[in-house]
Amino acid sequence: MTPDIENAKTVQAWLKGLEDQSGVSRDEGLQRVAVLQDFCALVDKEPDQIIAECLREVEGGKKIRAKGRRFYADRITEFESRIGGGTGEKRQMGNYIRSFLIHNGVLLQTSPLS
Amino acid sequence: MEFKEVVGRRRSIRYFLPWRPVERDKVQTILEAARLASRAGNADFARAIVVERDGLSKADLASLTLPVNAGMIEMAPIHIYWWGDLKAFARDMPSRAAEQVDMGVLNISHGWTHTFINEVAYPQVVQAFSSDAVLSAKVTGCEAGLAISQALLAAVDEGLGTMLCTYPEEPARQVLGVPDSWTSLWVQFVGYPAESWEAGGQRPRPPLGELFHEGKYGQPFRGTEEGAARLRAEKMIQDPAPFSWRKEEVRAVSRMLGLPEE
After folding, report:
1. What is the ipTM, given to two decimal places?
2. What are the residues facing B50 on neighbouring strands?
3. Angle of the A9-22 helix axis to the A87-103 helix axis, nearest 10
4. pLDDT band, residue B67 (cuts 50/70/90)
5. Is B84 touching A (CB cutoff 8 A)?
6. What is the DSSP string of A30-86?
7. In terms of DSSP bridges, do strands B213-214 and B46-52 run parallel, antiparallel, or are they unpaired?
8. Which of A39, B6, B88, B155 has a C-alpha 20 to 30 A away from that of B232?
């Protein structure tokens, strides 16, 4: 693993998206990146690799790879289950990873907590 | 609620309270509104299967889920799977039109007789439409859409949140057991909104004259200032999106439901 994933293209896209769409400051964004780094360690992949496994280039754009998305959706659930803390905290950590995928064009939803 | 306000309040609600059930009589009202919609030849184009989310097995819920409907399908306690019956026009029109002649709904003054229905309207129009796949889909989609539109408005009038989304046709066909002649349209999610009814404000639309023309294409229909003012007073035209507090609302609702918020 590269110790610092901040400069990865997909992480930069995420940070920009967080700032532009949700008003998350760069510093706050970097805290999310630290969580992503833990996730990358779990799956033993770089951020750009994760996105590449969820999207493929097609004429005129990109298409979601269902298998890749399903794989990472399951890994995020696993990641949540390994984190300490309450249900809300676990979910929030998982949602940071979902946010990384979403901001890179991977449509990914999750079940509501109820 | 007055009609104009119902129209003004309707917008797609995407966050529902998963734990709050919808009363059966409200679902009945939605379906009744659809049943009473305008429809060509009084034919049964619009068909629906009402599903209680909690009555679906996990496997069936998963097979009805698409990436774009995934959040709503689990939040909304009621799903109405709308279908269009491609055989409706040919099957229903002759008998329904004849019935309407007998009831004085279709009359001589407009040329309606049993002879006209059986010898002209049915073979020349209805059969021609039904044997052309594109025309058939066009008519069925339009006619069912009228019913679905009323169903949406009825849900709003009942104080519910609602929206239309897509669903996977073949899996839905298997899970719901619908006839082969039905074609998938939309799933209408219904529930109590977890977001405010404004849902961020009325969505931006091009001005009236850009969409609608008068006399011929290119001559914009012109409304009046007085007309627009009346529609604002009667709440058909409402405060437009974006609302300054909308993103905070989305963030709070997402956090409450455990959904990605940023």
Report:
1. 0.86
2. B80
3. 110
4. confident
5. no
6. HHHHHHHHHHHHHHT--HHHHHHHHEEEETTEEEE-HHHHHHHHHHHHHHHHHS-S-
7. unpaired
8. B155
Q: Which residues of chain B does A108 touch, with a Cβ-Cβ cutoff of 8 Å?
A: 67
- CATH number for the domain formed by residue range(s) B3-90+132-194: 3.40.109.10
Q: Are B98 and B126 in contact (CB under 8 A)?
A: no
Q: Which two tokens stand for residue B182?
A: 């039905």
b/e A64-98 (16+ beta carbons within 10 angstroms → b): bbeebbeebbebbeebbeeeeeeeeebbbbbbbbb
| Cα gap A63→A55, rounded to integer Å | 5
Phi, psi for residue B216 in degrees, rounded to 5: -160, 165
Structure tokens at B236: 């058909």
B152-172 in b/e form (b: 16+ CB < 10 A) is bbbbbbbebbbbbbebbeeeb
What's the mean pLDDT in A80-109? Answer: 94
Q: CB distance from B262 to chain A under 8 Å?
A: yes
Q: Which of residues 48-67 of B touch A (CB under 8 A)?
A: 67
Q: Residue A2 pLDDT > 50, yes or no?
A: no
Report which DSSP code applies to B193.
Answer: B
B74 neighbors A111 (Cβ within 8 angstroms): yes
Backbone angles phi, psi at B218, to 5 degrees: 100, -15
Q: How many CB atoms lie under 10 A from the CB of residue A15?
A: 21
Interface of A with B (CB under 8 A): 18, 21-24, 64, 69, 87-88, 91-92, 95, 98-99, 102, 107-114
* Residue recorded with tokens 């021609």: B128
Chain B, nearest residue to A108 by Cα: B67
Minimal Cβ distance to A112: which of B68, B251, B259: B259
> What is the reported pLDDT for B121?
92
- CB under 8 Å to A91, separation ≥6 — which residues? A80, A113, B258
Verify whether the Cβ–Cβ distance A64 to B261 is below 8 Å: no
Mean pLDDT for B192-203 is 97
Nearest neighbour of A113 by CB, restricted to B70, B257, B260: B257
B19 touches chain A (CB under 8 A): yes
